[in-house]
Automatic annotation (TrEMBL):
<protein>
    <submittedName>
        <fullName>AraC family transcriptional regulator</fullName>
    </submittedName>
</protein>
<feature type="domain" description="HTH araC/xylS-type">
    <location>
        <begin position="96"/>
        <end position="175"/>
    </location>
</feature>
<keyword id="KW-0238">DNA-binding</keyword>
<dbReference type="InterPro" id="IPR009057">
    <property type="entry name" value="Homeodomain-like_sf"/>
</dbReference>
<dbReference type="Pfam" id="PF12833">
    <property type="entry name" value="HTH_18"/>
</dbReference>
<keyword id="KW-0805">Transcription regulation</keyword>
<keyword id="KW-0804">Transcription</keyword>
<dbReference type="InterPro" id="IPR018060">
    <property type="entry name" value="HTH_AraC"/>
</dbReference>
Length: 186
């Protein structure tokens, strides 16, 4: 039996779900972002107990088919941006259609209706958040970040970064360093 879980965005979320499943005594084959595959049937009391336990961590069990599909779109994008190194060989719409076995127009309309933003904006927002994270880590220069995040050029990355944040990547980096210096002086 598959369970679909809203707000699962990282490995820590997966650990929380695994721990709660083990507490309740529900064996599983896997837990990944957005879902868990439970072995056998789940009693309604166990499901209720799991739902309450997950809610304490900000996670929500879902049973509405449209919400589940929207979460699958979100999970696919989060996995693609944050946990996959290789670039997709097709455009995002084809990638999501193939991965989820739905027409992209349907996915896009449903996503916009439920989330209030387009799939593309959600995807780009996550790309920019990942770029911010890489800038803060300070292990890669902008050229390396642009390459890693599959931008055609540093200029393209910089333009998109400024459009979303109002700052250039280098100004963002200076602000981060300025904050760090201030904290070190405290």
């Amino acid at each position: 039996m598959k369970l679909y879980i809203k707000n699962m965005v990282c490995i820590r979320c997966q650990m929380v779900v695994k721990a709660e499943l083990e507490k309740i005594g529900l064996p599983y084959t896997y837990v990944k972002i957005g879902e868990a595959d439970i072995i056998g049937n789940v009693e309604s009391e166990q499901l209720k107990q799991l739902g309450l336990a997950l809610k304490k961590s900000g996670l929500i069990l879902m049973d509405d088919k449209k919400s589940i599909l929207v979460e699958k779109v979100k999970s696919a994008i989060i996995e693609l941006v944050h946990y996959t190194e290789e670039q997709i060989k097709v455009n995002l719409s084809d990638y999501l259609s193939e991965k989820l076995n739905y027409d992209y127009t349907y996915l896009a309309n449903l996503f916009s209706e439920v989330k209030g933003i387009t799939i593309e904006k959600f995807y780009l927002t996550h790309k920019i958040e990942k770029v911010k994270e890489l800038i803060v880590y300070d292990e890669l220069n902008l050229t390396e970040i642009a390459y890693k995040m599959h931008y055609s050029s540093v200029a393209h990355l910089s333009n998109q970064f400024k459009k979303f944040t109002g700052l250039t990547p280098s100004h963002f980096k200076k602000l981060k360093n300025k904050r760090r210096d201030t904290l070190e002086d405290v």
